[in-house]
Amino acid sequence: MSLLTSLARLRAIERGRAQPIATVRHCHLSARPMVFIPLKLSGEAAAPLAAMLGTDPGEPRLLAVTQPRNRDLRFAWAGELAGALLPYVTGFMGETETVERRNADPYERALDAPQLIVPNRAGVAFTRLLGRSTRFRRTDGPFPVPEGVPLLGRWLTYFAERAAYPGSSLMPAATDELGRHWASGQSALEDANLAALLAWITEGPDDAAEDPLIWPPAGPATDPGFDAEVLAPAMESGSAERITEALRTQLEPTWRLVWRAIGLLRELTPGASVAQRWEHDRASYSGMSAQLAEGAPPQARRDGAVAAAARLARMERAQAAYEVQRAYDDPLVMAEYRLTGEAFAGEVVDTAPDHTEGEGRSRKLRPLVTVKTDDLVRIAPGSALGTPQRRGQGAELVSARDGLVTLKITKGMGRGRTPAPGAVPEVGERVCYSSLTDDFQGAAALPEPEETPWTHGGPPRPYEPTDEDAREEWS
Amino acid sequence: MTHPGAGPGAGPGAEPEPTPEEVVRRVLDDLPRHRGVVVDSPPGAGKSTLVVRAAAHLAATGEPLMIVAQTNEQVDDLVARICDKHPRLTVGRLSAGGYVPPRRMLELPGVTVGTRVQDLGDPDVVIATADKWAWISGRTWPWAIVDEAYQMRSDKLLRIAGLFERALFVGDPGQLDPFSIVDGDRWSGLSWDPLQSAVSVLLRHNPDLPVHRLPVSWRLPASAAPVVSRAFYPFTGFRSGTGPGDRRLELVTGGMGTVHDRALEEAARSGWALLELPNRHTVRTDAEAVEAVALLAARLLQRGAVAGSEQGERPVTAGRIAVGAAHRDQVAAIRNAGLPPEITVDTANRLQGREYDVTIVLHPLSGRRDATAFHLESGRLCVLASRHRHACVVVARAGIAELLDAHPSAEPVQLGVPVKFPDGWEANQAVLDHLAAHRVQA
């Protein structure tokens, strides 16, 4: 935990209210998100019990499995879920834009994308398991499943994998997003309880949040007391209505909480880079839609050696970019870096806008700027710098001594003999520079999967879907 | 990590411990017989010497050789060593665009520097970092030597393994594991987990490859080798090449009885000292600890330390002293405390593979109120505690043992992941236990 967050947590305890740790919203919020709250049967890894979902806070749709131990009923439920979820998920490919690419064919990108919001991280994990248990099934052959189930499995798998992708907003968990914007006075473990975290942010800490009779767990696991005293007798009675109504009592409170969390996040202004990350999400979603349209097989059970390395490289790149963007979008996040000496803010006290380096043809414009700062600067001379005030600009630290930092601008000040107007900060302007820059080198190419080297087990056997896939043991 | 049945002398009733020379000869003999050969080398056991010798041995066969190291410093170092020992070998040093070769490299005969293989002519040996090799394609080498292979992530090996037919992998299994800024749980248990080290992945797919172990540390003194061996290499122990008394550290000018002087005197006498500050929870850049570290370094220079060893007597100059810490902000804070610029101050990560006469270490757990997996990683402490030829002074707040007791390692156990030895928690306790006998309280 960083110093500022620790301080915010202490303040939260002192004041009895969660403290903001961000000044802008760092996630995209869809105009029409779908809230998805899955429940599972206790003691089973991936036996769905119920789900509440919908895009309208006033119209939750409840789907329940009246006997989760019955596989046929489970997959019938998955079929219903597909019917409720897939029209929303696939409905965004209607409106697209054509995107030109370097070294590749142009492609169609959806103008908007679906957003599934789950209450907590466990909800994401369970979505992944649901996807895993449905995507390899077939609608024909032995053990057929209802129409739409295999496709549902692929989409759920896609969303859950995307949730692990840094900066993606296709499947956010409400507790995670709230935790990125507010620091409560409780532990990280307690923050995973949506009711408790929301109470800290709104009315202040509330013991009721821990009482399953008032705020049932946000899933996917249910309250053991409810299981024993309400659910078990309802299932024994065999009444579908009784079971459904019992489950509704467990889901509805969470439903309200998730929408409340969305409302809180919506009040924040989105950060400058949020749209850019959402664009990546839209592109990714469009790519997935295109793959499915071409009849691609279900996602592999495990990443092969090459696929794993490729995914790792993409994720690391996204993580690094996400951290930089958050800091550039939000002075409060940048403050963390100022505290660790990786950034500094202050007033410009001197400039030499026409300063040059080199002679003759290799003479280059390198405007100098001197900043007076109270921050402790721990950036080595020669390090590359960037600034939130002028995003395209590159600079280099020349010296930092006694609260005076001199830097030279190396990029983004125009090509002329004098800098473009506004490119060099004026004396008196307040600026912030950081050694955090999103100037990444791309990763080197990986071998094709069929050329996996001997050090990594050699080429894998290609995957061919068979009926055996459906025979996998699911218990 | 251990390789069961791997190195000679691993089990009971095994043949007598081979000499380093025997090990090297077995390695060279194994090279043509196997696709890959792994050599585990504890700190300062002559890993670079082995790499240079193997390079000359392979180059003598007339077949081209590629060498892979992990950082530019390591590459430059190897180039210098190869040219020094085998001036007749031609060496091509591949580098990225922005790389500025040190002047000493340009003066070396037989060395060419370039950004493309074509620019190098046709040297006996081509050497570059793993990152640079990943951009090379269109040619294969019959032989490769991968240096610091335990610090190399397996996804890097995946990018370059197509470039060579056979390879010698050399590294120190006790040092820091490769890491990532993203969570890699989804791959844990896979035999090709990209976050595992190159050697782990190599051996999981090719369990029959021979694994050798260098048995003697030439760097660590007799006072340190048993401590480091016991704490960090519990199943693959090593010994020091020098005996007790072979290494001496003398402080020429007298001390003033301050805690810093007493800590230095203890270190000079026994090879270890723990300067213990009062128990306190602090921020990472604990100002008092930083000051203590800086004062120790300054006093060490003022007192004119002289190191005596099998290499003769020489003064411990600033260039022979290193200061190590866990985090970059701690390093920056220590540098800002006004040390002579010749003293190396760096993180454990970047001190890997380096050697100094005296090291001053800010203990990774000093002043902390929790012990995370990062701080408990045995490799971090191992690197910090095994860079010295003569003495190591550790600065720490009291209460680390209690902190460790309050934070037993509780990482989830993942299926299919080989158990890692040593356990960081246990290694930390072992080192603390040893340091307790050399404690100077502030």
UniProtKB/TrEMBL annotation, chain A:
Residues 438-475 are annotated as: Disordered. Residues 465-475 have a biased composition (Acidic residues). This is Uncharacterized protein. It comes from Nonomuraea corallina.
TrEMBL record, chain B:
Residues 1-12 have a biased composition (Gly residues). The keyword Transcription does not apply. The keyword Thylakoid does not apply. Residues 1-21 are annotated as: Disordered. InterPro entries: Coronavir_polyprotein_1ab (IPR050534), DNA2/NAM7-like_C (IPR041679), P-loop_NTPase (IPR027417). Keywords: ATP-binding, Helicase, Hydrolase, Nucleotide-binding. It holds the Pfam family AAA_30. Residues 290-397 form the DNA2/NAM7 helicase-like C-terminal domain. PANTHER family: DNA-BINDING PROTEIN SMUBP-2, DNA2/NAM7 HELICASE FAMILY MEMBER. This is AAA family ATPase.
